[in-house]
Amino acid sequence: MSAFRAVVVDKTEAGQTVGMREVDEAFLMEGDVTVRVTHSTVNYKDGLAVTGKSPVVRRFPMIPGIDFAGVVERSEHPRFKAGDAVILDGFGVGETHLGGYAGMARVKGDWLLHRPDGLSAAECMAIGTAGYTAMLAVIALERHGLSPERGPAIVTGAAGGVGSVAVSLLAKAGWHVVASTGRPSEADWLKGLGAAEIVDRAELSAPGRPLGKERWAAGVDSVGSHTLANLLAQTKYGGAIAACGLAQGMDLPATVAPFILRGVSLLGIDSVFRPLPDREEAWSRLARDLDRAKLAAITTTVPFDGVIDAARGILEGRIRGRVVVEIG
Q1: What kind of fold does domain 129-268 have according to CATH?
Q2: CATH architecture of the domain covering 3-115+298-326
Q3: Residue 1 pLDDT > 80
Q4: Beta-strand (E) ranges in 188-296?
């Protein structure tokens, strides 16, 4: 049985450890599809898993990496056969089931998608869970009946993975995009993605009033806490905010005022256990709607040996946009 490299997170009495080591297929967990992994990516959750700064990993030892792209080696699942190009995001991979930071992965076929037509494995990982989540948020706003003529759309954490893709998607759809970031040096980069205005995150991250001036009709928030509360307080009548992250915190120190006085809606976005039809729709939309040049502009590629440093960097604010990890 041939060996392959994997990033392994383990736990000792002294605390969590992480390192690259050689394992073989006997190390992998049960599943009906075995995939040779060629690419992965680095999401905020991957940073938490690698560093142990949040209890994301709930099984030890663990191979982190909540996304991967690769080619099926063996399959007992009716939807897949050897040679199929596949992608995976979510379903607890990298948290409770061994993930994508390895040369091989064995998972349930129900968790896999065929790689969308027109997207390479690297492009799929440039999108990753972050970009897929951004697409789910945009779809949720559309289903709520919101469109660009209603007013601006706010995107928080705009220089991050979810935010940068959301800015690009909303701008291409015709929205006047307000990008909130704590990195003023990224203003020109965000405008290149389609942002029309830049707002310093400090303007939104402190405790605010129950209701503020109506500023935007829609928003995508990956920050939570006071930032999300302020977004809701400043959303126009009948508008909505799609919430998908907690970079500032899990709390929501808001009041009912925006909901009962302005009819504002809070749309929760789960990407981990989304049903197959929703996942296929989101990835089909990404293949169709996402500007490939802008995707390339927000993407950095690192070798497999660099994934641990990149995972730490995403928590330290050293990473902007998306990171593709070349594993194969």
Answers
A1: Rossmann fold (3.40.50)
A2: Alpha-Beta Complex (3.90)
A3: no
A4: 195-200, 216-221, 235-243, 265-268
